[in-house]
Specification:
11% helix, 7-stranded mixed β-sheet, mainly beta
């Protein structure tokens, strides 16, 4: 007997005149978009993806599929942390795939993911860009619940983030993490840090100056941080002991990059303040 939710959310956006509109929306199960927002004008559609149960349980299978038409601009986020709860051994999964046509802009900015002890999780995000499309995104993850004095002593996590341009992979990161993996405690691995995060931006307008600005704002943070710019791809990674400092640095990087890449001043979604 199968247990857990099977939820699917399918979204399609179009750019009509000077407005990005949600042209198609369908869902099954508890995975929804209640309303799209336009806090910075009609050109940018803010979309909050909601999973009403409040967390992902063993056996849950969540699928999110998104298409952006030519020149559409969408910012995706979540109303709060995504929590993956304790499992008796059954896998829970979330697969996200976003496809963007030429000159579209994707901002994938979910709030943090928290993997509870004993979780068995698979979390996959794939971004498919056509030539001329732009992307800014992040994944921030926490192993265990520090505020509840819970360490990640048992459990398994498979997490992946991939970006392609015209079907050609330009970034692929994936990790198979087990609680007893020595790499979580090794100085050449996670070094005992509970929070790990990846920031990715892709656009032809990224410059070495922007890379240096991101490095400067991160210099004072009490985090282990690395930043690299290779052609049109900027990648940042962070390790730390708390979500908030990591998120704060990523928001600063987003603000530095967004105005040039998306030609929009960064206006943080209001949901981040609630």
């Amino acid at each position: 007997m199968k247990s857990g939710w099977e939820a699917n959310l399918c979204l399609a956006y179009a750019y009509e005149g000077s407005r990005t509109v949600l042209r198609k929306k369908s869902h099954t199960g508890p995975l929804v978009v209640q309303k799209v927002l336009y806090p910075e004008g009609q050109g940018v559609c803010h979309t909050i993806i909601v999973h009403p149960p409040g967390g992902i349980l063993e056996g849950d299978q969540l699928q999110i599929s998104v298409q952006l038409g030519e020149s559409a601009h969408v910012l995706f986020t979540t109303p709060g942390a995504t929590r993956w709860y304790k499992s008796s051994g059954k896998l829970a999964s979330q697969h996200v795939r976003i496809q963007a046509a030429a000159d579209a802009c994707i901002e994938w900015l979910p709030q943090e993911t928290i993997y509870f002890e004993h979780t068995h999780a698979q979390n996959l995000v794939i971004i498919d860009l056509a030539s001329g499309a732009k992307f800014i995104g992040w994944e921030i993850a926490c192993l265990g619940r520090k505020l509840a004095s819970e360490q990640f002593l048992q459990g398994r996590v498979h997490q992946a983030l991939r970006v392609t341009v015209d079907g050609r992979p330009i970034f692929a990161e994936q990790g198979h993490l087990a609680a007893d993996d020595a790499a979580l405690r090794s100085a050449v691995g996670f070094d005992g840090c509970a929070v790990y995060a990846t920031f990715v931006a892709y656009a032809p307008t990224l410059t070495p100056l922007m890379l240096e600005q991101c490095r400067q704002c991160a210099a004072a943070a009490d985090l282990k941080i690395g930043l690299t710019l290779i052609g049109n791809l900027l990648v940042g990674r962070a390790l730390g002991d708390a979500v908030e400092p990591t998120r704060d640095i990523f928001v600063q990087w987003w603000k530095i990059i967004r105005e040039t890449v998306c030609q929009q001043v960064a206006i943080p979604p209001r949901i981040w303040q609630t």
